[in-house]
Design a protein that fits this description.
Elements: H1 19-28, H2 50-53, H3 63-70, H4 73-85, H5 90-94, H6 111-127, H7 131-153, H8 158-162, H9 171-201, H10 215-222, H11 227-232, H12 248-264, H13 274-287, H14 293-297, H15 304-312, H16 317-324
C-alpha cells in the first residue's frame, strides 16, 4: 500500500491531543485505568510503597486487586504472569503502562495483550539458551494468547472492547463508569492467558532452523537493548503475533524509551511521558499516521519464517531505523 495515498485513520490523534484528559490524569496521579484509584487515597502506579501494597496478594485470582494497585491492564498482566513464573521486573513492568488504552490511547490492541505477550517473551528468554528459539517461542505464545483473547472478546482492540475513544473530550470520565468491565475482563482472562502461555512455552520448538528475527526485537536491539529485552518484545512482531494489527515495532520502541524515562522518574507514572509521545509522533510522520502492520507492509505474514525472510530482505528497515533513532539515554 502507498502510505502517501492513505486516508486519515479514524484512530489518528496526531492533530487531536486532548489537554483536558492529560490534565485530568495528571491531577489524579494515576495511569490508564488508574482513574478508578481516586477511591484508593495515596495509591499510585508508581508508588514507592508498591511492594507493601501488594503484600498478601499471591494468587492469579488477585487479578482485579492487582489491576487496581498497578493502575493499567498492561502492567497488571505483565506483573501477574511474571509473578506466576517467579520473576518480577519492576521497571520493565512500569514501562509498559503507555501501551494500555491501545498504544498510548490510540485504541489499538488491548493492554492485556501487550502485557501478556511481554511476560511470555520474558519467560521464553529464561527457558531457551538459543536466541532464535526464544524468539520463536515468544511469537508462538503470543499467537496463542491472541487467539484465546479474541475468542472471548471477538476483537483485539481496546477501542472496540471499551467503546471509549480516548482522543475525545471527557473520555476519561466515561472510563470511570465503564472501568468495571475492564476489571472483569482482566479477572476473567488472567488465569486463561497464564494457562495458554505455560502450555505454549512448554512445547519443544520444531520446524524452524537458522536465525529467526522479529521486527520488534530488531528495533529495540538498534536502541541498545540486551538479549533479554529483545526476546521480551519478540511476540510483538508483525502487529502482535504476526496478526497484522498495529505495529509491534512501534510498541517496542515506546516501551524501550519508557524504561529510560522510568529510571529518571522513579516516583512518577509513565502513562503519559514525553519520550513515548515523541516516539509515536515520529512514527506517525514516517507512516502517514498509518498504524496497522498489514497496511504499512502491504502484506500479512503467513509464518515466522515468512516474517524473518521479510526482515532479512530489508522489509521495514527504514521504519525500524527511524524508530531506533528516537532512543533516549
Amino acid at each position: 500500500m502507498n502510505l502517501e495515498e492513505n486516508t486519515c485513520n479514524p484512530l489518528n490523534v496526531s492533530e487531536q491531543k486532548n489537554i483536558g484528559r492529560r490534565q485530568f490524569l495528571n491531577k489524579c496521579s494515576t495511569c490508564a485505568a488508574g482513574v478508578i484509584l481516586l477511591a484508593v487515597p495515596g495509591v499510585t502506579a508508581a508508588s514507592k510503597n508498591s511492594v507493601s501494597i501488594l503484600q498478601g496478594l499471591n494468587d492469579i485470582k488477585d487479578a482485579k486487586k492487582i489491576f487496581i494497585k498497578k493502575g493499567t491492564c498492561s502492567q497488571a498482566l505483565f506483573f501477574l504472569l511474571n509473578r506466576e513464573f517467579g520473576h518480577i521486573k519492576d521497571i520493565e513492568e512500569r514501562a509498559i503502562d503507555p501501551l494500555a488504552g491501545g498504544i498510548m490511547q490510540h485504541g489499538y490492541q488491548c493492554g492485556i495483550l501487550w502485557g501478556s505477550a511481554m511476560a511470555a517473551g520474558a519467560e521464553s528468554y529464561r527457558r531457551h539458551n538459543d536466541q532464535s528459539q526464544a524468539i520463536t517461542q515468544s511469537i508462538k505464545a503470543t499467537q496463542q494468547i491472541l487467539e484465546a483473547f479474541v475468542k472471548k472478546t471477538k476483537t483485539a482492540n481496546c477501542i472496540e472492547i471499551t467503546n471509549i475513544d480516548f482522543t475525545k473530550r471527557f473520555s476519561m470520565l466515561k472510563a470511570i463508569f465503564n472501568m468495571g468491565d475492564c476489571l472483569r475482563l482482566v479477572d476473567k482472562m488472567a488465569p486463561k492467558l497464564l494457562e495458554v502461555t505455560r502450555e505454549s512455552l512448554s512445547k519443544t520448538p520444531i520446524g524452524l532452523s537458522g536465525q529467526i528475527l522479529s521486527c520488534a526485537s530488531e528495533t529495540v536491539g538498534k536502541m541498545g537493548a540486551n538479549d533479554e529485552e529483545m526476546v521480551m518484545v519478540a511476540g510483538f512482531a508483525g502487529g502482535l503475533g504476526l496478526s497484522g494489527n498495529a505495529c509491534g515495532a512501534l510498541s517496542a520502541a515506546i516501551w524501550k524509551n519508557t524504561i529510560s524515562w522510568c529510571r529518571k522518574n522513579p516516583e512518577k507514572s509513565p502513562f503519559f511521558n514525553e519520550d513515548g509521545e515523541n516516539t509515536i509522533r515520529v512514527f506517525e510522520e514516517a507512516t502517514g499516521s498509518e498504524f496497522l502492520c498489514s497496511k504499512i507492509t502491504g502484506k500479512t505474514f503467513k509464518s515466522i519464517s515468512d516474517h524473518t525472510e521479510y526482515i532479512k530482505c530489508g522489509g521495514c528497515e527504514k521504519l525500524i531505523n527511524t524508530l531506533a533513532q528516537t532512543k533516549v539515554s
